[in-house]
Amino acid sequence: MTAERSGDTCAASDASGSCPSAIVIDDSGVERLLAAAMLQKLGFHAQTASDAQAALAMVAGRRYALALCDISLPGTDGLTLLVAMRSLDVKLRCVMLSSHDDAAYKAKALQRGAAAYLIKPLRLEPLAETLRGMFPEMGGMMGNGG
After folding, report:
1. Which of 42, 83, 100, 119 has most Cβ atoms within 10 angstroms of its Cβ?
2. Each residue of 24-70: pLDDT tens digit?
3. Is 72's pLDDT higher than 60?
4. At what angle do helices 52-61 and 78-88 cross, to 10 degrees?
């Protein structure tokens, strides 16, 4: 189990000087850090976890506005984690990530409470576009993603 608390600053902040918190769950260190960097560029305070157990501990101890979660994780898969995280915080908005552009995976994720489903490799503009729709209150803080 690895929890990585990173991203003590964010690229943009609201009038109160804070920014929404996000958690990235992915067993690939490169993917995890890349996604966290993208979120920070888009105005989020990003933290990371490498597995479901670490992610659940983090979500139980802190309120996050957003979770980016890989579907394929060691042990507990991302869809099961999605349900568990949403049971801890029904307001948590979850974006599932997968390298499989599969309609069945996408349907399962959306049925279980995911707000969106994005295909890896994660790219900044599709992520920004998705998040602008999910967080309209952030307005222009997310810029154009590029």
Report:
1. 42
2. 999 999 999 999 999 999 999 999 999 999 999 999 999 999 999 99
3. yes
4. 10
pTM: 0.87
Instruction: Decide if 113 contacts 85 (C-beta within 8 A).
Output: no
Q: How many CA atoms lie within 13 A of 61 on its CB side?
A: 10
What is the tens place of the pLDDT at every residue in 77-123? 999 999 999 999 999 999 999 998 999 989 999 999 999 999 999 99
Query: Which residues on neighbouring strands pair with residue 94, listed in sequence order?
Result: 67
Q: What are phi and psi of 132, to 5 degrees?
A: -60, -40
Domain chopping of the chain, boundaries: 3-8+19-133
Query: Strand runs (DSSP E) across the chain, as ranges?
Result: 3-4, 21-25, 45-49, 66-70, 93-98, 116-119
What is the CATH number that goes with domain 3-8+19-133?
3.40.50.2300
DSSP state of 1: -
